[in-house]
Amino acid sequence: MSMDHPGGFAVAPACAFQRVVKVVANHQVAHETFQLTVDDPAMAASMLPGQFLMVRPPGGSDPLLGRPFALYEVERDDKGVPTGISVVYTVVGKGTSALSRCRQGDELSIWGPLGHPFGLPPIEGEVLFVAGGIGQTPFLALGRWWLGRSEYGGIQVQQPARSATLLYGIRSAEMAAGLSDFKAAGINVELATDDGSIGHHGYVTDLLRARLARNERPAKVVGCGPPAMLAALSKLVAEYDVPCDLSLENHMACGFGVCFSCVAPIRQSDGSTDLKRVCVEGPIFAAHDVVWS
Ligand SMILES: Cc1cc2nc3c(=O)[nH]c(=O)nc-3n(C[C@H](O)[C@H](O)[C@H](O)COP(=O)(O)OP(=O)(O)OC[C@H]3O[C@@H](n4cnc5c(N)ncnc54)[C@H](O)[C@@H]3O)c2cc1C
Ligand code: FES
Fold first, then answer.
1. Of 8 and 26, which is predicted with more confidence?
2. Which residue among 92, 118, 252, 259 has the greatest number of ligand 1 atoms within 8 angstroms of its CB, and so is best to mutate?
3. How far, CA to CA in Å, does 209 sit from each of 4, 10, 37, 74?
4. Which residue among 18, 48, 165, 190 has the highest number of C-beta atoms inside a 10 angstrom radius?
């Protein structure tokens, strides 16, 4: 399977598979937010930034369905050989509560890698990642990949981005997750909070608007977060005509294209709108193609 990525690069995702894996670690990284690492060398060797996996929380048939999580990082041994997958999640309901109770050595059923990855970085440019809440998760691996610091799925970026900055909007300082990971990866971080407890007091899109108003034009923007934030981001990048991709996080039941629970209205080349399955035709879409009502 291959696709023409919104960035114009043909990328062929690896085939997904289902397996039972062992939990290596599951520790709290911010308020109600955990980093889960599972032991899976095969998936770790093939997964690309932007892809996701379905994780079936423990607990028999309740909840019955797996839950989708973006790749946060590929874990590697001392020689750099991929050994496992990490995801970072916030507890919002039954599935993520069950996951938060997992301990080292527990078994989980997972399937992936799913969805299409991000394409290659813009040549020689600055990239800006705009995240709302737990929408920061796809950007650690993406930043490392685009800066040429790690290969993913055996692909090493030959012409890395000049710099990468994460504009990260959260409710309050206690929700900030993974700041040291981003800094260690060479990704600059600017924060915005709803309550002003750290960083800019206001929306994360304010940070981007201020840069664009100062004529600091990035080569590319990538966004992930709640729909209202993505709609505002889409409007802003359209105003300044900046290339932008979005990673959508619609509710998903199956994760592999059969239930249609995840559809999003996507603009077609003839101007019409079609409902596309985010799990198989996304989760990455060009911002100007996503129709916000
Ligand atoms: C491709 C993809 C990647 C994702 N990556 C991550 C990630 O890296 N980290 C992370 O924390 N979450 C991520 N999510 C969202 C995550 O899948 C949901 O938070 C999770 O499924 C909730 O499960 P639950 O059983 O705990 O909540 P539920 O009991 O199913 O729901 C609890 C509440 O959360 C709401 N909710 C559930 N799913 C979503 C959703 N997708 N978007 C908005 N609200 C939702 C429900 O409406 C309900 O109000 C991702 C989603 C997708 C589609
Ligand atoms: S989640 Fe079932 S079709 Fe996308």
1. 26
2. 92
3. 29, 31, 36, 32
4. 48
Q: How far apart are CA 14 and CA 17, in angstroms?
A: 9
Q: What's the mean pLDDT in 218-244?
A: 98
Q: What is the pLDDT of residue 9?
A: 43
Confidence of residue 58 (pLDDT cuts 50, 70, 90): confident
* In a shared domain, residues 216 and 146: yes
136 and 276 belong to one structural domain: yes
Asked whether 254 lines ligand 2 (CB < 6 A), one says yes
Q: Look at residue 76 and tell me if it is in a domain.
A: yes
Question: Of 114, 135, 163, which marks where a domain is finished?
Answer: 114
Whether residue 60 has pLDDT greater than 80: no
The pLDDT value recorded for residue 14 is 62
Residues 64 and 173 in one domain: no
Same domain, 174 and 237: yes
Residue 250 Cβ < 6 Å to ligand 2: no
